From TrEMBL:
It comes from the Bacteria. Keywords: FAD, Flavoprotein, Oxidoreductase. Belongs to the acyl-CoA dehydrogenase family. Residues 6-116 form the Acyl-CoA dehydrogenase/oxidase N-terminal domain. GO terms for molecular function: acyl-CoA dehydrogenase activity; flavin adenine dinucleotide binding. The keyword NAD does not apply. It comes from Paracidovorax wautersii. Residues 216-351 form the Acyl-CoA dehydrogenase/oxidase C-terminal domain. SUPFAM superfamilies: Acyl-CoA dehydrogenase C-terminal domain-like, Acyl-CoA dehydrogenase NM domain-like. This is Acyl-CoA dehydrogenase.
Length: 371
């Protein structure tokens, strides 16, 4: 198999990297954090780069690119620990394209592609932990539409988004709905998360909703897998930059009159960080390539990837802090923000232990060294 990136993918990587380096520096990011953790103008700049249209079908005004292209973009955004939730755009694009009625696709996908509309997934409930099949939200028929009652937590940019994709119980099974943020019965309470991005508690009280699909659990699993793949790719970018920052610091920091990068024991720790990064990179590629597989195989593959990424994120982040010393946890130094991002991503979409359990539960009888 050819694992080289195409010329178009390399051009995409270069364009996003240039924007991150020149248009989304640490000072701008600090300003966005101070303003609440989300900047519509920065999201608009992502749209100008074509990133919001990347995975939207061409028939709906998008570029119709693959999961690998999305992976390339997310890696580069990870280098700049960009706060705006482009991964949610990839999730919404895929779910709407695969499951929504034609009229809903025609209404929303062109606006998602242009960056005019931000649509995010609102699925997390307090009792659910990481299980997608636990859902207490209720939907009831209301004329030609439906009314939703629910409380959803940690919704990315929830008080800034234009609409939510919401799972809810309908006739004893999970269905998926689209709810506009400005609709009656919708209330949001925004806050900053640990990685300084913006999220919100979203409360729906008989809110009008458009039915996307009655096969809600399958659609929700697809959404989660797209989210995991995007998180894996972003994490590779974050770890890559974390390693670069660490090496640069070690070359500057002196002890006993020489750079600490010359100490053999510390060089071995950096080598271990590099090994974990490359393991994570290969599993990120694996995750994106498996998004087109049958649901059962796709779910197993994404859990495998998240296990390795979780282990790598924890190791690289912690080693970076240790090698930096006290400065590694100060807000004034950018390295601490990479560490916080890695810590939060390790728990996103299910932490390492959760996915290790998923991998174990879905092992076949032939698994193991004696197969």
């Amino acid at each position: 198999m050819d694992f080289d990136f195409s010329d178009d993918q390399q051009s995409l990587r270069d364009a996003v990297r240039r924007w991150v380096e020149k248009g989304y520096g640490f000072e701008r990011r600090k300003g966005i954090v101070a303003a609440g953790g989300f900047d519509r103008a920065a999201y608009g700049e992502l749209a100008e780069l074509g990133l919001t249209a990347l995975t939207v079908p061409e028939a709906q005004g998008g570029l119709g690119q693959s999961a690998v292209d999305a992976m390339v973009a997310m890696e580069e955004l990870g280098r700049g620990i960009v706060l705006e939730p482009l991964a949610q755009t990839f999730i919404a694009s895929r779910v709407l394209a695969d499951y929504a009625p034609e009229a809903v696709q025609a209404d929303w996908l062109p606006r998602i592609a242009s960056g005019e509309a931000l649509v995010v997934l609102a699925h997390q409930e307090r009792k659910a932990r990481y299980r997608l099949d636990v859902c207490e939200a209720k939907a009831t028929p209301a004329g030609d539409s439906h009314a939703l009652t629910a409380i959803k937590s940690i919704v990315p940019a929830g008080d800034q988004a234009d609409a939510f994709i919401v799972p809810a119980q309908l006739d004893g099974r999970i269905a998926l709905f689209l709810v506009e943020r400005t609709a009656s019965g919708v209330a949001t309470q925004g806050y900053r998360t640990q990685d300084e991005s913006r999220a919100a508690e979203v409360t729906l009280t008989d809110a009008p909703a458009t039915l996307l699909t009655t096969d809600g659990l399958a659609a929700l699993e697809l959404a989660a897998d797209v989210g995991i793949a995007a998180t894996c790719a972003e994490a590779v970018g974050v770890m890559d930059q974390t390693l670069a920052l660490t090496v640069d610091y070690m070359n500057q920091r002196k002890q006993f009159g020489v750079p600490i990068a010359s100490f053999q024991a510390l060089r071995h720790r950096v080598a271990d960080m590099k090994m974990q990064l490359e393991l994570a990179r290969s599993m990120s590629y694996y995750a994106s390539l498996k998004l087109g597989e049958a649901p059962a195989e796709r779910r197993r593959a994404l859990s495998r990837a998240k296990v390795q990424l979780g282990q790598s994120m924890r190791f690289v982040g912690q080693q970076s802090v240790q090698l930096h010393g006290g400065i590694g946890v100060t807000d004034e130094y950018i390295g601490s923000h990479y560490f916080k991002k890695l810590t939060q991503m390790e728990m996103a979409w299910g932490d390492t232990l959760h996915h290790l359990g998923e991998v174990s539960a879905h092992m076949q009888e032939t698994a193991g060294v004696f197969a």
